[in-house]
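task queued by scheduler; priority normal; single chain, no ligands, no partner chains; default sampling; output format set to structure tokens
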Amino acid sequence: MIILSVESSCDETAVAVTRGREVLSSEIFSQVDIHALYGGVVPEIASRNHIEVISRLADSAVSHAGISKTDIGGVAVTYAPGLVGALLVGVNFAKSAAYALNVPLIPVHHIRGHIAANYIAYPELEPPFLCLIISGGHSLIVDVKSYTHMEIVGASRDDAAGECFDKAARVLGLGYPGGVQMDKLAKGGDDRKYPLPRPVLTGSKYDMSFSGLKTNLINLLHNAQQKGEEIDKPSLAASFAAAVSDILVPRTAAAAKEKGYDKIVIAGGVAANSRIRRDFEMVAKKEGFTLYAPPLSLCGDNAAMIGCQGYYEYMAGIRGDTALNAFAVKGI
């Protein structure tokens, strides 16, 4: 079954054509340069740009896939979570396309899409497994029981890891997007120079917190500025990445052990971070896990992952209609 898929949850407009796990075409219009001027994503600007390019991207995706529109058997779309205005652009486009083509509309949860990026990269990967999703808006440990049955094991109680990387980069004067800049800067630093906190929460051993870590870094910088002290920025970035990784990696490994899984999957934009990937590789080797980490091209938002997950949602009987709405926040 050939699926046309749409992703517009934040600042990437993406359209793809997939057949199961096979990607026939994948088109992405990034708004990074547009939002860099403001130091972060401006929702209204993101929505307007989605409107301007989505039809052109869809035509391009169909053309590059080497198919005709009559070959499309379904339309998948991210409906939640994300910036609601941005989501609505994709949802309304997908509803119109499905109606015009007289094919099923398949709603896809954005987080499920990130997990499915690994299905594209690893044809042999099948549930069950434990997955850590880390992005600008989400930090979740998820028990993936099947392609469409998932349960959250742990989550951040405040900021997401990616959001903290972006805010840390901003106060360090690195610009947007912050995660990539922080990763580059950290490569030349001493990750033990600055002792940053690793919060431990009560009530759930797998829940996480990043706001205190972010605040600690900001206060450290401000205090140094007030005293006229010089900050070793590469070492501070490296120490920050080490702290984030120390919050994420042990919890994920412990949850996988408790669930009896020998497979750990990571997904989302922050899964591209070199320190986090390296630490997961080390714990996988030490504990005997098989680690699945998507290539960098599939870590960020894209429509191919939505199409891949859309296939499994379709096989499970999930359908949408013209009443499908977008949701800024919605459980997995």
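post-processing summary
- Residues 2-114+299-315 form a domain with the Nucleotidyltransferase; domain 5 fold (CATH 3.30.420.40).
- The chain has a mean pLDDT of 95.
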